[in-house]
Amino acid sequence: xxxxxPLIAANWKMHKTPDEAFRDASSIVEMTQQAVKTVDILIAxxxxxxxxxxxxxxxxxxxxxSQNMHWEAYGAYxxxxxxxxxxxxxxxxxxxxxxxxxxxxxxxxxxxNLKTLAAVEAGLVPVVCVGESLKEREKGETxxxxxRQVQEGLKNVPFKxxxxxxxxxxxxxxxxxxLTATPEQAQQAHEHIRAGLEQICGKTLANSVRILYGGSVxxxxxxxxxxxxxxxxxxxxxASLEPADFASLANxxx
Length: 254
Ligand code: PGA
Fold this sequence. Notes:
CATH topology: TIM Barrel
Number of strands: 8
Bound molecules: 2-phosphoglycolic acid
Shape: globular
Low-confidence stretches: none
Strand order of the largest sheet: 1-2-3-4-5-6-7-8
Distance between the termini: 21 Å
Mean pLDDT: 96
């Protein structure tokens, strides 16, 4: 198995003011000083918190990401921000195609693809989210949905060995519901995604791409999830809001 460094990511969604983000990011830095040596840690606050959070993370080894961006470099796109804007705030990662963006804001695979291309072009590492709804799972469509989202989302995206895209498998039915996919269910999906990646970028690179699991990850279940061979980290919503909980997730191997 390729040597994939774990990535534990906090998705703060629409929570925290800049002051709260600064305070909580500072606490996380304090509590993850050992973990950063062996695990990549990422915090993705809202746009308005990026600059303050960057100050808290400065010199810590904990990375900053945003939760979205537009694919255009600039222009008349009211309410949007571009790759260069989030880069200027200190981001090195950007979460794209989160199911909440797809579900509530009409994001499509095509849009996710444009954003992913723009992110890689700008020098950001995209964290591309994929995942099936409960209905799709019950109808036996999970793998088809994942194949479509991965193939269309990553269409023509260059796989640069030093800046490989990250994927996040987040079954929609497990997000914020308290229902976690079992480690075996998640492993099955991750294995399937990796096999699909092999068709896109070849075996060696597919083996180097990190695939995170997201959906009600918490301190009580991270250990089991991380034991699965194709689970390389976690994208965490609810349990990332409390610094001590998120730090304990990042410290899963300590
Ligand atoms: P959750 O959210 O951990 O609250 O389920 C995960 C996500 O949406 O990234």
